[in-house]
Design a protein that fits this description.
By secondary structure, this protein is α/β, with parallel strands linked by helices. The protein folds into two domains: about 130 residues, 3-Layer(aba) Sandwich (Rossmann fold); about 70 residues, Winged helix-like DNA-binding domain superfamily/Winged helix DNA-binding domain (Arc Repressor Mutant, subunit A), CATH 1.10.10.10. The chain has eleven helices and six strands. Strands 2-1-3-4-5-6 form a six-stranded parallel beta sheet, with helices on both faces. Helix 1 links the parallel strand 1 and strand 2. The longest helix is centred in the last third of the chain and has 14 residues. The protein is elongated.
Length: about 210
């Protein structure tokens, strides 16, 4: 029996998924919640095999949730459910450790098949999104150090805090941030962070720093 937990803010969607999985003889819905923190706990306590995680939860994004679930319940595969097709999202999901990335407009058969496959240890990726990723993927134009600085900035750190954490002077941090903004074609630091996240550069760099 495949034990499944769901995290989606929309109650009607959760109810629909619960009803769908209730018709599958080899699946059991063990919890349906509305936020990332709760699903992380549910995956661990309920010993879930698969967590269906909405791309946009109210308290945190699916990428952060994926990492949290994988840390709290290593046996649980995460299947991200998305309402949009944006290549950067796929890169970030894979980098975070998601086993699958499928669209919310998938057919019931496609979704249940995806659940079975990730439960078996396979990877499942929306074909159209994978093609878009192949066509549009861009390497990061930033150096590892620039990504370090931007990654800490993305956590909400001030220039002083970035300097302290990375053992740099404040002037050096400002220079790095200025170069980053120019390289990615942004107007502000916040816009540069958004561009880097959308392209999957920040998360991959953060994981390599923590390795």
């Amino acid at each position: 029996m495949i034990r499944v937990v769901i995290a989606d803010e929309v109650r009607l969607f959760r109810s629909g998924l619960t009803a769908l999985l209730g018709t599958e003889p080899d699946m059991e819905m063990v919890d349906a919640v509305e936020d990332g923190r709760t699903v992380t706990t549910a995956a661990r306590v309920q010993e879930a095999d698969v967590a269906l995680v909405d791309l946009e939860l109210p308290d945190m994004d699916a990428f952060t949730v994926t990492g949290a679930v994988r840390a709290a319940a290593p046996q649980c595969a995460v299947l991200v459910l998305a309402g949009r097709r944006r290549p950067g999202d796929l890169r970030r999901a894979v980098a975070a450790g998601a086993a699958g990335f499928v669209m919310k407009d998938s057919s019931p058969h496609e979704l249940t098949d995806a659940i079975r496959r990730v439960a078996r240890g396979e990877r499942v990726i929306d074909a159209d999104l994978a093609f878009a990723e192949l066509v549009t993927a861009q390497p990061a134009p930033l150096t590892p150090r620039e990504l370090d600085v931007l990654g800490v900035a993305a956590e909400g750190a001030t220039v002083g805090e970035i300097a302290e954490r990375l053992h740099l002077s404040r002037g050096t941090v400002r220079n790095y941030l200025g170069r980053v903004v120019a390289k990615v074609g942004a107007r502000t630091r916040i816009e540069a962070i958004t561009i880097a996240r959308d392209n999957g550069w920040l998360l991959a760099e953060a994981r390599s720093r923590g390795a």
